Amino acid sequence: MKNPTDYRIDEGVVQPSRASLPPVLSLTGIFMSRIAAFILALLLAAPALASEPTPEIARVVAPPQKTGVLHGLRTIPEACTRLQGEFTGDAAAPYRFAVVRTSATCQPRAQLMDAGKAKASVANGWILNDRIRVPSAACSSQQAVVTVWRRPANAKPPALDAQGRARIYLEEAVGQAKAGKLAAIPAYAVSMAVQGAACR
How many angstroms separate the CA atoms of 90 and 92, rounded? Predict the structure, then answer.
């Protein structure tokens, strides 16, 4: 019988110190290597996750829409506009996107812009407001993605006068407009893209 000092305990594996076989890899070592691989994967994916902001509006994917059926996407009341679209079935232009005015009498309180021309991004002071995904019922691998950005304005209400009221005088407002000193108004920027492979 071997002396107990001839045996060593290595991470739960008991074997003679002079054994001819190499020690068996322990479960602890496997677990630690998997944790290290997971942490490495997170570190590699971190820049991609950081570059993709989360929209202010959390929204599930819309129900699949049939070809040729016009559907509403979203209304932006501040800009007096409604976003709508339809799948066309045309491979060259599979989705027709439109921005429609909600009412002729509506007075917009925000500007609506093209996201590409406005260079809407977090780096340029824009906030990702909404992302709408609409799959095609006729082609499950294809979807229209409408992205809405928002740029807030730092407008302040007019100062109160001696009677405690905020007043805007027409002559002063016209003079400020002519001088280009009007306060900035909020803005929205919209873009549309079709993602996924077209069906044959």
Answer: 5
Helix (H, G, I), strand (E, B) or coil at 153: coil
Question: What's at 14, amino acid-wise?
Answer: V
- To which residue do tokens 């989705």 refer? 95
Neighbouring-strand partners of residue 189: 113, 149
Bridge partner residues of 82 (DSSP) = 75, 100
Closest CA to 111 of 178, 1, 170, 189: 189
pLDDT at 102: 94
Contact status, residue 154 vs residue 184, Cβ threshold 8 Å: yes
Q: CA nearest 116: which of 49, 194, 193, 195?
A: 193
| Pair 114, 99: CB distance under 8 Å | no
Nearest-angstrom CA–CA distance, 94 and 185: 34
Please tell me the pTM assigned to this model.
0.64
